Amino acid sequence: MAAITPEELDVLIQQTYKVENEFNELKASYAHLQDTVEKVVEFLPNAIWIINSDNSVFLQNSHARDLWELLKLLEYREEDYEIKFNAQAYLVKSSSYKDKIMLSATDITEQKRKENLATMGQMAAHLSHEIRNPIGAISLMSSTLKKRVIPENIPIVEEIQKSVYRIDRIIKATLMFSKGVEVQKQAFLWSQLKESLSMSIGYYGYSKNIKFSFPKNDFTMNADKDLLEMLFSNFITNAIDAIEEDDNEEGIVEITYENDENYHIFKIYDSGIAIDNEKELFEAFKSTKVKGNGLGLVLSRQIAEAHEGSVHLCKGAKKCFEVSIKI
User: How far apart (Å, rounded) are the C-alpha atoms in residues 287 and 106?
Assistant: First the structure.
């Protein structure tokens, strides 16, 4: 075998260095590509798993790691499907490439909740329209009946009227929820609103000795009086119900007032039972009390927000709500 000349050895060494450099560049490029893929997968808002043929995990993001128990329930399907896990709803998609299967699970709980609310709102609005006419007739006939019955039967007719008033409030709230809140502002005095609230309390009815304390000073508001009557009535009737469920035979509902030159600020207190679940307070069709359709506080917040204000629990007090209305 002929000996390798120094020149040939030098060429061979140079080629070896070139191959090594190309290999290192290729290796760095692959590592960069892998890092990019991992970052893209991590950036995605849904849980992603890439599974090997032996069912081991080739790649996953942090959302997938948090839902590792959900992976046990997933399967490869050509069509998308939904699955429930730990009270959440997920949309599952899957695809395959060579020996790998990719699974993704997207949390659609909020989307499903909104779809259900929309359906419930449409059904409730339809039922409210159907009920409104007979309720109007009952209300008219009960007013006529009250004038004709003997005095001993008047309390019975008044109970009918109170029940009709409750149904009418539910119908109005349901229709408003389905249509949305529309504000018609005009100037009026607080004393006018207070008078309307006092009448509403009389129609609502309760069995215990309840004291009502409203702001005594008069002031002007530029707002939708009918909507604010509904807002405060919701809080007052909730307070009455809370006191009725309490063990004490007496109770108090108090509304205080102040302003900061930008907002009318009301605080509403009551001495009734504590709130069970604060998280569900402002969720439609979920009521924290025995009586109620779950729309009162939702609408109250919407009414306040339509007046560029807000509704929330007072800080450090569970039996107090703060309502602000733009001046």
Answer: 29
